[in-house]
Amino acid sequence: MPDDRAAQIAPIPVRPGEGRLANAPANHPPLAKARIGILLANLGTPDHYDYWSMRRYLNEFLSDRRVIDYPAWKWQPLLQLIILTKRPFTSGANYKLIWNEEKDESPLMTITKDQTAKIAQAAAERFGSDVMVDFCMRYGNPSTQSRVRAMVAAGCEKILFLPLYPQYAGATSATANDEFFRALTKEKRQPAVRTVAEYFDHPLYIDALAQSVERAYAALDSRPDVLVASYHGMPKRYLMEGDPYHCQCAKTTRLLRERLGWAKDDIDMSFQSVFGREEWLRPYTVEHVAELARQGKTNIAVIAPAFSADCIETLEEINGEIRHAFEEAGGKQFTYIPCLNDEDAHIAALMAVIEANLAGWIG
């Protein structure tokens, strides 16, 4: 399957004689007009939910030393001989449950395309035609390298790289940046680049989260006993080694609560997607929601503020495994509040972040 099958914004064609070298000889290679690129980056998605597509995707993901930092001699035999023999079947079955069959792609791909299209439109209205917007995935397609290559070929002499992770983590933001920098090593004429830092405390992002909660609560017959802010987990060891993710998740939860004007007991924080035997950040969402039900809090809502788009971890894990654990423990009403996806308030927040990071590059 072509690497750039999911590209939303086609590279702007190079037109001979368009470049800045007005006095260049006639046989000089054609140049594109100088542009600025805005490259969005998300985690990634398999091309399909069949065994081999899943195996390729999981191999790339689980071989990333930012994700699993065990020594290769210890981890790779386990990964290649055991995990990648079995897990593609179970993961593929989970993806099949949520797959966008009409477009033959995962929901993450569909949503990321929609986000990119809206940001491209907003950027064109605000900055004009000299700004190009595209997206890439850290794992799977379209690859970071293919999109960097397309932007450079289209004349982007400056690229703003935006990992779509509100909170920073080594296993998300840092590995996306790593792959971006690796892609730059392939370019003879490297563009000037900037990477966008975490934006979890941006007022417009917090406001967009709050609006999504307010809309969801307004549609319910009864107010939930508690809102659980469920974040993707990580080994506790990473926190001890200096990763700021846990602290930024806690601050996100606090800022959301303050924006909503709620009491402390109205919202709490937990972590999902635990993998392996090592202790991860606690409490674990799947255990936490069951405990809430046993405590008599049988009406809860769950939101996932670390995800910019709904994906397997939200649509299948939260709405499947986590919901089931809550109901098995006696829970009655479980409400999942979708990610911000391509909501207008989310796009406005991302555009504010983009505009701030373009300062000095564009008027």
Please explain how this structure is put together.
With 363 residues, the chain is α/β, with parallel strands linked by helices. It has two domains: 35-198, Rossmann fold (3-Layer(aba) Sandwich), CATH 3.40.50.1400; 203-337, Rossmann fold (3-Layer(aba) Sandwich), CATH 3.40.50. 45% of the residues lie in helices and 15% in strands. The protein is built from eleven helices and eight strands. It has helices at 51-62, 72-98, 107-127, 144-153, 170-184, 203-218, 236-240, 245-260, 285-294, 312-328, 344-357, and strands spanning 35-45, 131-140, 156-163, 192-195, 226-232, 267-272, 299-303, 333-337. The strands form two sheets. A four-stranded parallel sheet has the order 2-1-3-4, sandwiched between helices. Strand 3, helix 5 (170-184) and strand 4 form a beta-alpha-beta unit. Helix 6 packs across helix 8 (245-260). Mean pLDDT is 93; it is low at 5-17.
Could you list some keywords that capture this structure?
single chain, 363 residues, alpha/beta, Rossmann fold, 2 domains, 4-stranded parallel sheet, 11 helices, 15% strand, globular
Q: Mind telling me which CATH architecture of the largest domain this is?
A: 3-Layer(aba) Sandwich
Strand share of the residues? 15-25%
- Write down how many β-strands occur, each being a DSSP E stretch of 2 or more residues: 8
Task: Report the structural category.
Answer: alpha/beta
Question: Between the first and last Cα atoms, what is the distance in angstroms?
Answer: 40 Å
The CATH topology of the largest domain turns out to be Rossmann fold
The low-confidence parts are: 5-17
Number of structural units classed as domains:
2
CATH class of the largest domain: Alpha Beta
Mean pLDDT: 93
Strand order of the largest sheet: 2-1-3-4
What's the story with the biggest beta sheet?
4 strands, parallel
In angstroms, what is the radius of gyration? Answer: 22 Å
Helix content: 40-55%
Shape: globular
* Contiguous helical run count: 11
Q: What letter string, H or E per element, gives the SSE order?
A: EHHHEHEHEHEHHEHEHEH
